[in-house]
Structure formats: C-alpha cells, structure tokens
C-alpha cells in the first residue's frame, strides 16, 4: 500500500533506532531521580508519609518504563536489556502495591472519621 515510502524508512531506520535509544536513556535517568526526590521529600524534609494521589504518578511511569524497555530490547534485538524489565517489574509492582495499600488505608481512615463525626 505504501511501498513508495519503504526506501525512506529503510534509510532513516538507523537514525530512528538511535533516537529511540536516546529517549530510552533519558527515561532511564528519570528512574533514580524519582527515588532521590522521594527520599528528599520524605526523609530529608520530613514530609509525612501519608497517602497522596500523586503516588500513582510514580507507579505509572515505572510500569511504562518496564514495558517500554522490554519492547525496545525486542525491537533492537538486544537480549541483555531484558534483565532490566525483569527487575523493574518487581519495582513497578511494589510501587503499585504501596500506592494501593495507601489508598485502602486512606479510605478506611476517612470512613472511620466520617462515622465518628456523624450525629448519633
């Protein structure tokens, strides 16, 4: 159907692979930064470790990074990158689990407070 574009795609494939790798490396840099910022926020500045919907903003990128790295390793044919998704899947699930447990505890606490304040 689009055979006239095939030579162009063939010519720019190395550029696309390199640029994709560049963006993956940039994404890889953000993962440690996320943890550093969490440590800075909660342990250095003593911000309370209570549930905040922004925690989902950390869980989602971890999962997407994991999936993206797995797909990148398949697309570029570099099998040694598959170790990263294996480790990051556990990290991403841990982040999701912490966020979910925090949400459940927040809901329970809110319901208890509501019941205590309700007129008898």
From TrEMBL:
<keyword id="KW-0812">Transmembrane</keyword>
<dbReference type="InterPro" id="IPR038665">
    <property type="entry name" value="Voltage-dep_anion_channel_sf"/>
</dbReference>
<dbReference type="Pfam" id="PF03595">
    <property type="entry name" value="SLAC1"/>
</dbReference>
<keyword id="KW-1133">Transmembrane helix</keyword>
<keyword id="KW-0472">Membrane</keyword>
<feature type="transmembrane region" description="Helical">
    <location>
        <begin position="87"/>
        <end position="108"/>
    </location>
</feature>
<feature type="transmembrane region" description="Helical">
    <location>
        <begin position="21"/>
        <end position="43"/>
    </location>
</feature>
<dbReference type="InterPro" id="IPR004695">
    <property type="entry name" value="SLAC1/Mae1/Ssu1/TehA"/>
</dbReference>
<protein>
    <recommendedName>
        <fullName>C4-dicarboxylate ABC transporter</fullName>
    </recommendedName>
</protein>
<feature type="transmembrane region" description="Helical">
    <location>
        <begin position="55"/>
        <end position="75"/>
    </location>
</feature>
């Amino acid at each position: 159907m689009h055979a006239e574009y095939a030579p162009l795609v063939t010519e720019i494939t190395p550029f696309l692979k390199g640029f994709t790798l560049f963006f993956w490396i940039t994404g890889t840099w953000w993962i440690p930064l996320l943890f550093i910022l969490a440590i800075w926020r909660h342990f250095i500045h003593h911000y309370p470790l209570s549930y905040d919907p922004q925690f989902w903003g950390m869980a989602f990128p971890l999962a997407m990074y994991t999936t993206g790295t797995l797909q990148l390793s398949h697309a570029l044919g570099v099998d040694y990158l598959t170790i990263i998704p294996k480790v990051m899947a556990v990290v991403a699930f841990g982040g999701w689990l912490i966020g979910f447990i925090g949400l459940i505890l927040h809901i329970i606490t809110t319901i208890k407070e509501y019941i205590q304040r309700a007129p008898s």
